[in-house]
Structures are given as C-alpha cells and as structure tokens.
C-alpha cells in the first residue's frame, strides 16, 4: 500500500491528498494548485541503514514514467478483457463507430498483447449469444466476471465505446455535483450504470498485484471510474494531479491493485465518432487515436500515448493524418472479414503494462 500526504489547499483550505511522490495538487473546488516542497516531506528511514531508497520514493509520479509505480504484472498472470460496443441501431441515439471500435480493440489485444480469445468477453448488438447483448444486466455481469477471482499478476482491461451521460448527485460525493454514467442498450427503460457502481464493482475489490486498464470512449467520461486521483494534461504535455476523493471521506481507490483509466473527454464534455480519421468508416475518435499511437511506437508511457492521441486529433483539422495506414488497413480487414494486416501493428512498451 502507498502512503499519502495530506495538505490544505493554498486558497480555500480544503484538505487535499497527494499521490505518492507528487509535488503539487490541484483543488477541484477552487482550481488552485498547491505546491509542496520536496524537503518538507517526512520520509521514514529504511530499516536497513545501508539500503538505498526505491526509485518510487525518489521520483514524483509522472505520466512520462512507467506508471503506475511497482513492478509489471507477472508474465504468467492471467489476462481478461471486457469490450463493449453499442450502436443503439434503429434508435434516435444511433452511433456509427462503436462496434468497429470493439472489433479493433479485440484484434489489438489478441494479436499484440497476447490476450487469449476465450478470455475476452465481447458485448455488442451483433453477438448471437443473448448474454452478450450489451444491455444493463449483461454489462453488470460482465464487470463482475472481469474481476472475479483475480490474483496478483493478472492484467485486466475494460473498453467501452458508446453513449455516456451524467445525472445529478445528491450525496455530495461529486465536486461538480454530477455522477457520470454509461448508457447500456436498454438505458431508456432500465436506466444507466452510475460511476459509483462501476467503482464498487471493478475498482475497490482489486487486490495487490492486479492491474486494470480502462478505456472509456464516451461523453462525460472523465471520472466515470470515480478514481481518487486524476492526472490532467494540456496540449503542451504539461500535467497536474487533482484530488477527486469524495468529501464524505469514503475510499474510492483499490484494495491494493493498480487502475489506470483513459477517457475520451472531460466530465462536462462530449465525445464523437467520425469518419475523418480512418477515411473509410466511422470510428470513435479516442479508440482510433489510441491504436494509432501504439502503431506509431508512441506507447512507451501513458504521457507519450496521450500526446500522440492529441496530435492526431489536432492534425485531423488540417487533413494531416499521415501514418494511419496500418489502422485504416486493420479496420478494412475487420469490415471485409480478412485475417491479417500487412506489416502489422508495432509491439511497443505498453505491452509491459498489459502483460
């Protein structure tokens, strides 16, 4: 378990908690950034006076380092993934690219990160198994399945491409006053899946040595896992940590495991699917840019992935999408039922996190 330092916001005096090694934290209430001098922090002496401190106690957490801290999962650990793509076909909420996103992510996990096919639970409207239709009940069961029986060394992934929304929060746990939600296929009759439930299902039970990656390609998805800390990065690659712990004091972190969530947009923003990226069909902008970042060899750190994704989005406006051929070929192969991609996607450092 990691130790956390508590400081008061320099402006509104709200108690803030710092991730291990962080030198500043932003308050989500007043937006002030509070800096903490490195020398002012108490570091307990090692039990062995000759022992050197571990690197994780020396370096502040950075998206440009191999985050999260700690060794990568054991190579013999299991790999499990839940991939959800919902098109809401024949409804006024229809999306064009979500099932393409799901197929591309499954292909990427199987071919480049060695996820066994039978360890990937795919929920889309195209599935013939009624238990793999992405309705609310099936999505709940899939999330329970993802973390059920997980052990140190396991690598888990949750990818969601579909509608996201938000609703008024009444217990005071959200700084912006809203709970973020995912919208199952039947959300109009059965309701949405709220971030509190997602956190309780796949975040809080996660034991030490287990690593979960979540990719949420949806509107209002910034904090949909309700994680206690958020790393916000601007277009210049500068980042700042924010303390998102509920003011009630309830713990929204794991039981010792590591969770990293990449979101398509902030809590008050919307995401989109588009054909401007692949040129041949609609895809979720975030999912496409993530795969392209891996293909271009920018997957060494989370920071390099985010920078690459932002660059692709910015360049889209100027029609400067060079380098996307492999991803476009992958999408074309999936649409036509082919079995291979010429040249393949590059194997990159992110595999150390997914392995």
Automatic annotation (TrEMBL):
Membrane-crossing segments per the record: none
GO MF annotations, alphabetized: cysteine-type endopeptidase activity
Cross-referenced InterPro entries: Caspase-like_dom_sf, Metacaspase, Pept_C14_caspase, Znf_LSD1
Cellular component GO terms held in the UniProt record: cytoplasm
One GO term (biological process): proteolysis
Feature: compositional bias, Pro residues: 58-74
Chain ranges of the Zinc finger LSD1-type domain: 9-33
Pfam families on file: Peptidase_C14, zf-LSD1
Peptidase C14 caspase domain span: 78-315
Region (Disordered): 44-78
Family recorded in the similarity comment: Belongs to the peptidase C14B family.
Protein name: Metacaspase-1
Organism, scientific name: Populus deltoides (Eastern poplar)
